[in-house]
Structures are given as structure tokens and as C-alpha cells.
Amino acid sequence: MTTTTDRGPGRHRSLGCRSLRRRFVERCMASFFLILGVSILASCDLAPSRQQSIEDLKARWSGLEGAKNSDDPVVRSEITSVLDSGGSPQQLMRPLPAPSDNVAVGLAEMLSSGREESLRKRVDGLLPSDSIELNPIRLQKAIRLVKDEVDLLRAIDSAASRKKCHFAIDYTWGFSADTDVLELADLCVKLKALEVVALLSEDRPTMATHPLSKMFRIITLVSLEPLARFRSAAVDQRELAFRALEKISSHPKTTRDVLISLHSQVTTQLDTWPNDATTCNGDRAISLYSYEMIRG
User: Fold this and answer.
1) pTM above 0.85, yes or no
2) Could you tell me if 53 and 164 lie in one domain?
3) Residue 47 to residues 38, 40, 50, 150, Cα–Cα distance (Å)
4) Closest C-alpha among 49, 28, 174, 184 to residue 116
């Protein structure tokens, strides 16, 4: 998934085709706002704007150029504050790392959309309400799944070990920005939780710390994306990870070295958790993009 897309030069194509119905609805809404914005421009008799390409309009809207030069001093003040904090859609864009260094690309390359959907249903059936307390039947199914998906689990390890992460969310596309990669990250966290359960069933708490560390790695990356949906998902994922950590720490064969490792992982997770004040910066940017479109 390293080919470019028309969402901007050098950007990755959507990191997987997921939740097609939701994406279709979102794209329809985005198209509506785009048409509405262009219509308003036309109705205002702004003839030069009629000749602008979509990319020109997108660049203008994502830079909040109209609001930045508003006649309303309150609007100008608010937009200046947003721009000073680096919160416009354009400013939230980051250069893409090399695909071989990008955790998100590594995760996206592992599964076809059809297999991902099937696997998600299987995993969700084993982890109701994000609990890892499995009854004997579910435990055996979890162990079987871990054995069946050992290659996938190692691929997750490899992807999570990459140096950088960029989920390729294009904030300059407003409400049509693709955020579906979050569902894949969530699936990977749950798969690693099942691996922890399987290893503990074999009395291997030391080995169980390894999938836990990958859980925390992915959770940290998800939490850093400045969207409320991502931060909320990271909170749920971290709750699952802490439950896995509790199971490891309370295992009869857990040693002092294992506890030291767990303490280190928890400390790192807490230290790298982003400031909650940044949670909605991306949502604000997307909303301002739509505001800019409508105001013309």
C-alpha cells in the first residue's frame, strides 16, 4: 500500500479498504459540503473562483485563508490562535516516512480487507467487552486462533518494531479524511492480547511480556493521533493491555524479572501518553475546514 493517491503528492493510498458502508456515507457527506461550498462561491458571483481547480480550493480551505482574513475580529483572533498552535489542516500534515520505517504501512500490508473483516469477527467473539477473562471454551478457541495466526502475529511484531508511524490521515480532506486504519490497529492489539492469554495458559509469563510490549507500542501510536476517535480507542486498548498486565503479574510462575519488565512497560506507557489538551486538535481542524468551505 505504498502507491500514491490523489489526496496529495507522495501520500500513501488508503491503508486498507475498511468499513465500506461508513466510508461511503462519509464521502457522500464530504461531497455534499464540497458542492455546497462551490455553490456558495458561485452564488456570491466570485467569477475567478469558478475557474479554480479542486486542489486550489482544497489548499485555500485547508490553510483557513478565508477565516484568517475575515472582517470579523473575533474570527480572526480565533483563527490566529489555531494557526499559532499549528492546528490548521495544512499544519497537521507531516511528511511520510519511508514505507519500510512506517508502522502503519507494515500493519496495512498484512491482511486483505476480506480476511481482516473475518478475523475481526472471530476475535471480537472471543473478547467480549474487551475482557481477557475467557471461559474454557473460549480459551481453547483463543489458543487455536493464536496457533493458526502465528505468522500474522510475527508480522505484527515486525511492523510494531519499525522506527516511525504515520497513519496517512490527510486532514486537508476535511470530513472525507480516511481514518479506517484505526480498526486495523485495534484488531492487532486484540490479537496480541489473545497471544498473552495463550502464553499464560502454557505457564509462560516471561514470554507473555513480549506481546504485551507490542500492545503498548501500538496503543502509544494510536494515542498520538490528534483525533478524539483515536484517543478514545487508545483508552479502551490501554484498559485491555492493563488487564493483560494484571494477568501476567498475578501468574504463579511470574518472577521478579518479569515484574521489573512490567513496571518498565507501564512507566514508558504513562510517560509517552500525550497531553489530553491535544485530543481534539484534528477534529477541530476538520471542522474548520468545513467551516471554511461553507463560508467561501
Assistant:
1) no
2) no
3) 11, 12, 5, 60
4) 184
Report DSSP state, residue 10.
E
φ, ψ at 7 (rounded to 5°): -80, 5
Backbone phi, psi, residue 229, to 5°: -65, -40
Check residue 52 and give its pLDDT: 56
Q: What are phi and psi of 102, to 5 degrees?
A: -95, 115
Angstrom CA distances, 36 to 74, 291, 293, stand at: 25, 11, 8
Beta bridge partners of 8: 5
229, 186: one domain? yes
Cell (9 digits) for 293:
468551505
Find the helix or strand (DSSP H, E) in which 213 lies: helix 205-224
DSSP 3-state assignment of 4? strand
List of the chain residues with pLDDT < 50 = 1-21, 24-25, 35, 38-47, 49-51
113 and 78 assigned to the same domain? no
54's grid cell: 479542486
Q: Is 111 exposed, middle or buried (0-12, 13-18, 19+ CB in 10 A)?
A: buried
The verdict on 76 and 150 lying in the same domain is no
Residue pair 202/251 in contact (Cβ under 8 Å)? The answer is no
Q: What is the CA radius of gyration of the chain?
A: 22
Contact 170, 93 (CB under 8 A): yes
Looking at the structure, tell me whether residues 85 and 110 fall in a common domain.
no
